[in-house]
From TrEMBL:
<feature type="transmembrane region" description="Helical">
    <location>
        <begin position="33"/>
        <end position="50"/>
    </location>
</feature>
<keyword id="KW-1133">Transmembrane helix</keyword>
<feature type="transmembrane region" description="Helical">
    <location>
        <begin position="84"/>
        <end position="103"/>
    </location>
</feature>
<protein>
    <recommendedName>
        <fullName>Guanidinium exporter</fullName>
    </recommendedName>
</protein>
<keyword id="KW-0812">Transmembrane</keyword>
<feature type="transmembrane region" description="Helical">
    <location>
        <begin position="59"/>
        <end position="78"/>
    </location>
</feature>
<dbReference type="InterPro" id="IPR045324">
    <property type="entry name" value="Small_multidrug_res"/>
</dbReference>
<keyword id="KW-0813">Transport</keyword>
<dbReference type="InterPro" id="IPR037185">
    <property type="entry name" value="EmrE-like"/>
</dbReference>
<keyword id="KW-1003">Cell membrane</keyword>
<comment type="similarity">
    <text>Belongs to the drug/metabolite transporter (DMT) superfamily. Small multidrug resistance (SMR) (TC 2.A.7.1) family. Gdx/SugE subfamily.</text>
</comment>
<keyword id="KW-0472">Membrane</keyword>
<dbReference type="InterPro" id="IPR000390">
    <property type="entry name" value="Small_drug/metabolite_transptr"/>
</dbReference>
<dbReference type="Pfam" id="PF00893">
    <property type="entry name" value="Multi_Drug_Res"/>
</dbReference>
Length: 105
């Protein structure tokens, strides 16, 4: 169950990062409120998952899901670059997450 909570926390990290971008430096009220609401849920789930999972594993998986997810959202929704080098970097992050998951008892 902790792994599921951690995965969902990572997804919420992607959502709050997107709304942070949409907030235009916290100058738009609705995206700003959404940023902090999703951030609260993301941190809450991360904290709950850390009760059962190691700190390093939890944090790496959470930030990895957030980084790769934000990368994908940036490409799909915001028209950001999808160069071969950026895709390779994202794949290396995914490989690191998978290795950390396999290395955690």
């Amino acid at each position: 169950m902790a792994w599921i909570a951690l995965f969902v926390a990572g997804l919420f990290e992607v959502v709050w990062a997107y709304f942070m971008k949409m907030s235009d430096g916290f100058s738009r009220p609705i995206p700003t409120v959404a940023t902090f609401a999703f951030m609260f849920v993301s941190f809450g789930l991360l904290g709950w998952a850390m009760k059962q999972l190691p700190l390093g594993t939890s944090y790496m998986v959470w930030t990895g899901i957030g980084a790769v997810g934000a990368f994908i959202v940036g490409i799909v929704m915001l028209g950001e670059s999808a160069s071969a080098m950026r895709i390779a970097a994202a794949l290396l992050i995914v490989a690191g997450i998978a290795m950390m998951k396999l290395a955690t008892p």
